[in-house]
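All the exercises in this workshop are built on plain-text protein records. A learned vocabulary of local backbone shapes supplies the integers on the structure line. Once this layout is familiar, the rest of the handout is easier to follow. An example says more than a description, so a record of this kind follows:
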Amino acid sequence: MERFVLILKHQSVKQNVTATAEKMDARKALKDFFGFEGFKGNQEAVINSILAGEDCFVIMPTGAGKSLCYQLPAVMLPGTAIVISPLIALMKNQVDNIRGFANQSSLAHFLNSTLTKGELTTVVEDLLAGNTKLLYVAPETLKKDETIELLRKANISFVAVDEAHCISEWGHDFRPEYRRIRQMVKEVDDVPVMALTATATPKVQLDIQKNLGMMGAKVFKSSFNRSNLYYEVKPKGRKDIVHKEILTYIKQRSNRSGIIYCLSRKKVEEVAEMLKVNGIKALPYHAGLDAKTRASHQDKFLMEEVDVIVATIAFGMGIDKPDVRFVIHYDVPKSLEGYYQETGRGGRDGMEGDCILFYNPNDIEKLEKFMKDKSVAEQEIGGLLIAETAAFAESAQCRRKLLLHYFGESFKEKDCMGMCDNCRHPKPKQDVTAEMTLALRLTKTIGGEFSFNHIVHFISGQRSDSVKDYGHDKLPEFGAGKERDKVFWKSIVRLALVNGYLNKNIEKYGLISLSAVGEAYLTKPVTHEMAVDTEFENVTEEDFENFKLESICDEVLFGHLKDLRRKVAKEKNQPPYVIFQDPSLEDMATKFPITLDELCNINGVSRNKALKFGQSFVEYIAQYVTANDIERPQDIVLKASSEKSGKKAAIIQNIDKKNDLMDISRSLGMELPELIHELDAIVSSGSRLDIRYFINQFLDEDLQDEIFTYFRSTEEDNLEKALKHFEGEFSIEELQLMRIQFLSDAN
């Protein structure tokens, strides 16, 4: 702060650079400065409005050219336009972009905490000299007294509030500092204000206009429809299955750019690591990384050094990468605004983009639990926003129609053209005219305005607290639809909302009542068909832990592979289990690997073991697949996670240093039996370990030779039988360690 004030003391007072410049034609300026031949959508009308000194509110989807709406008039008007922006990364991206069109870098600057003293001096000098047309400022910076003092000295043409949805508590990215923008702007100058956002429901729009004192502003609202985006919701089951689905999807689209959104930093790191170890060029992005790393990862994505960014929702705001071909939501988003904003980063070049959401009702429950420590008002708002997201995911209706209806826009289902999963693969529909009429009639019966769940509970006969509080369970109509379940009636009420038969109050968000259109429907019903919404399986972490994957092993092939193993073992003069153990053969008979690379993905097979013993196995499997016309499974086999790889590396390093096994187990936080299990897995997959230094402490050399002779002579890999053979002379742990050394020597 002190260095800021010192710089100001040495600057000249506000210069008179008011509107003496000749008025320029917007189309000519567009061509001269940006090189574009024409405007898109509402751009020209918005620009002419701000040039005329009018406040305006711009609602325009991602990729439709919001930035141009304030960049061009800023260049045309005398003075400097202040652009209030929420993210430093966004500011830098915008400034770099505008400087690419300018002759001098002074045309655009940003003012934030990242500037050095020298950079700050340059910004202040360029601003007060009238050289700067666009100054990007974060709301946190704008509220500082020294910033207000500086801007009072400059000639401000207008103020643009980008990402204006941050003003509203009902928006998906609420920022408290944004609610003070009007007060801060008035302290600087009485200039026109432009608010811009890509996502604003009618409720959010009203909230923004009230807060900025823009109720009389011109509103320019473009269609929210992104016709090139395909929307799909997939069930989110066990983690390993979801990982395989994502990996398979990306592998089939090699060298395509994509974003995967996760709600937690831990999940971001986990998914990014999973992709990397499986050959995908991917990087994480979240607030837990330092600013330099985040900037580096973002730049690598923009420069196509990596294909996939796995990120929390902070990533992508204003990032102008046109060729993002897919946006995957690993976790359910907190609101439909957030979902729309994030999916909108796909396909900005107009080419097709896939938007895939993995949905598990358990994730909705987690989001609701996260809000338990917030205020009652925040919990109420958050709960309603989450419920809207769940409704979108579970619905069997056209997803595009639902999404656009949420933003106050009507859409005909036939115009979707199969660009959502529900339209591309429609569920069977049934005539629900009678049920629709019943739902509307019962809504009229209770009168007034009630929540979505209240209406569903009343129709289906569920005595919820709300229904009992209003005494609606005492009405004769209570439970008139109880022969149908809650999922069915939720589908009906959602269909009624989308068709305008029910109103959702903007001021009292979430309260529903019968509309005039609904009244007319009751007088003269029309036929309605509907597919019932999807009821997703609620999969918990406990379900995942207790789940055991059923074997789909080809038993015939498994038997042949055992015969082949016996043959190879005889040629190599080794016991069969040294070649490949039974679990590895079973995995081969399930996944049918036909190359050595594919064999390396089989359980218990390292590259070394595949090269040493694998050729005859993959050749045999390839012949078997062809002869029996087998369609091999296309899902990808997940390679080991970084945690497992790191543990393995740590064990090998400790063994190489000849550290005591007890010390190793303690340092890695494991019990000795667990460490022995890990050692067994390492040598079984083909790696070598020398643990003789430890074995020598309790077994003489001649006793070791006796045990090795037994292992060489038996075809059965069975330690219990070995224990019986030696009649208790050796403990099970001693035999386990000797077996590990024996397998290692054979590798």
About this structure: The domain at 2-221 is CATH 3.40.50.300 (Rossmann fold). The first strand starts at residue 56 and ends at 59.
